[in-house]
Write a structure and sequence with these properties.
The structure is a single chain. With 124 residues, this protein is of the alpha+beta class. It has a single domain, classed as Zincin-like (2-Layer Sandwich). Helices cover 43% and strands 14% of the residues. A three-stranded mixed sheet has the order 1-3-2.
């Protein structure tokens, strides 16, 4: 089901942190119930072939798993959302950055930077 509360959180993170590569209007949020997964949240990208076939821009879906995500406090929820946002590449192509990617633009490096920005934002 649609998750407007999650979209508000994502919009706030994008607006208040240095997340200028994400087109917030092309992010959709969904809340799953009874999803058969160990994940707290997942991100889905609309690949290039679908973009061409449907004649649409790249889009991403951030899915939160209600039973796990909703019981987290606000700070932890935002960290989970930042984890999912870190999977979005800087070129906003519809593809996803894997956990295993190495180098300057690695997933871990990007996530650490986002979480550090978030923690500084909380201290204001």
């Amino acid at each position: 089901m649609s998750a407007p509360d999650i979209e508000k959180k994502i919009t706030s993170l994008i607006n208040n942190l240095d997340i200028n590569w994400v087109k917030k209007e092309n992010i959709v949020s969904v809340r799953s119930v009874n999803a058969n997964t160990r994940a707290t949240a997942r991100i889905w990208g609309l690949g290039r072939i679908w973009q061409i076939a449907l004649n649409v821009e790249p889009k991403y879906i951030i899915e939160v798993v209600s039973e796990k995500f909703d019981r987290l406090d606000d700070r932890e929820q935002n960290k989970v959302l930042l984890h999912e946002i870190a999977h979005i590449p800087k070129n906003f192509s519809g593809s996803l950055v894997a956990h295993t990617r190495k180098g300057k633009n690695s997933f871990k490096g990007k996530l650490d930077t986002l979480v550090a920005q978030y923690m500084r934002y909380l201290m204001k």
